[in-house]
């Protein structure tokens, strides 16, 4: 068999083993055959006579430089020593293949996947394995040295024949005994000169049997249908009302009698027979109550402590914590949490109110106001979500109670209260009033809120809403004053065009007019007409109309 045929036979035997190690395919896998064909195609189409040693050396130096940059200089030096050992190994020097050492190094570097990242992730494991490997190699070297010198000392050692007297028992040597000793000596000599047989499959060094070849890391997780329901229940945390909100759930009792105040109080008042029968209170954990409070801010739904009917949110009367009476808990929730939940619901429903009907087109001023209101609600949302995230994770074993939650959310509730107060003063019943009344009253009320604000936060919120809403009026006024074109497509500006003789524009109606069946509340008209911004805008708009008539 020629050298080329021997080489092809070795490749043919080792290609399936290499593919199995890299891919993990079984022998009966249909993809194994296609991978073998692809590997043979790559080998047959390889046109290089030998590996470029300069390129391989540059790749090794590049890896060493990356290790040095990552503050792993000792690993870079160790990599260089290992490469030098492979290059200078006698088996590589005496091999019939040209540059077999460079081909081997090129193959190993090509198999490595992100060596620097693997070193950072598994540095402790690699150090431990290398330390164990070095200790085993030192022990093996010491044993080999002792065995070597033992064989050297026994080499060509022939026992000397000593002359004994005929009366001595040790002088009796038979011919058969001498032949047996010579045969044993020859066997030991042949055994000492024979090389140890190598197994066909190489064995990894001690301590490195569990190291696997690099594999592709997928950025996703496989879908497991069996864990969907369990994961959903753990995420939603609705187990305390899944059987129905009005059904009495099993009570939560503590080992301390003082912590079961609600149940003990019920038993105390249920003992006398002359009183009416009381239903036992439903109890839940304080963690469940805190989670439901956050849900009420996001998507109000009927649950353990809250009852949602249409737009109304109420506290369920016969539900409490184990350490407090239901009356006290209801009072606490109604005074310190429920008003802010209703404020958030009203502010969030404003966008649905102006866009909820097809037969109503909101003015652009109200649209800008609604968009600005959503932007101002975002920081409040982020603060609520941050508190909920802290409740879920409980960093540093933090204890979360109803009182601590209220103290933590007090600045957030104050900002929400200011925003709701401004909204109530600025927004009217927009579906019953004309567009120009709703828009001008909105701007006038925002200016009034800014002037009468008692805190800097409230003044800043009012001015922010005003600057976002007034952009529509400023755009209409700019076009009217400069180009003489009144682009008031939603009939919300302070003036309007008419086709009467002698005039082309007039001021819109802002007062109640019984003849025209135009009804506006007196306080609304007063808020609009007494506003300085409205008066300034009206004055300049009329002057611009007179100038255009003259031209």
From TrEMBL:
<dbReference type="Pfam" id="PF17681">
    <property type="entry name" value="GCP_N_terminal"/>
</dbReference>
<dbReference type="InterPro" id="IPR007259">
    <property type="entry name" value="GCP"/>
</dbReference>
<dbReference type="InterPro" id="IPR059169">
    <property type="entry name" value="GCP5_N_ext"/>
</dbReference>
<feature type="coiled-coil region">
    <location>
        <begin position="119"/>
        <end position="146"/>
    </location>
</feature>
<dbReference type="GO" id="GO:0000930">
    <property type="term" value="C:gamma-tubulin complex"/>
</dbReference>
<dbReference type="InterPro" id="IPR041470">
    <property type="entry name" value="GCP_N"/>
</dbReference>
<dbReference type="GO" id="GO:0000278">
    <property type="term" value="P:mitotic cell cycle"/>
</dbReference>
<protein>
    <recommendedName>
        <fullName>Gamma-tubulin complex component</fullName>
    </recommendedName>
</protein>
<dbReference type="GO" id="GO:0000922">
    <property type="term" value="C:spindle pole"/>
</dbReference>
<dbReference type="GO" id="GO:0031122">
    <property type="term" value="P:cytoplasmic microtubule organization"/>
</dbReference>
<dbReference type="GO" id="GO:0005874">
    <property type="term" value="C:microtubule"/>
</dbReference>
<dbReference type="GO" id="GO:0051225">
    <property type="term" value="P:spindle assembly"/>
</dbReference>
<keyword id="KW-0206">Cytoskeleton</keyword>
<feature type="domain" description="Gamma tubulin complex component protein N-terminal">
    <location>
        <begin position="292"/>
        <end position="504"/>
    </location>
</feature>
<dbReference type="GO" id="GO:0007020">
    <property type="term" value="P:microtubule nucleation"/>
</dbReference>
<comment type="similarity">
    <text>Belongs to the TUBGCP family.</text>
</comment>
<keyword id="KW-0175">Coiled coil</keyword>
<dbReference type="GO" id="GO:0051011">
    <property type="term" value="F:microtubule minus-end binding"/>
</dbReference>
<dbReference type="GO" id="GO:0051321">
    <property type="term" value="P:meiotic cell cycle"/>
</dbReference>
<dbReference type="GO" id="GO:0043015">
    <property type="term" value="F:gamma-tubulin binding"/>
</dbReference>
<keyword id="KW-0493">Microtubule</keyword>
<keyword id="KW-0963">Cytoplasm</keyword>
<feature type="region of interest" description="Disordered">
    <location>
        <begin position="194"/>
        <end position="214"/>
    </location>
</feature>
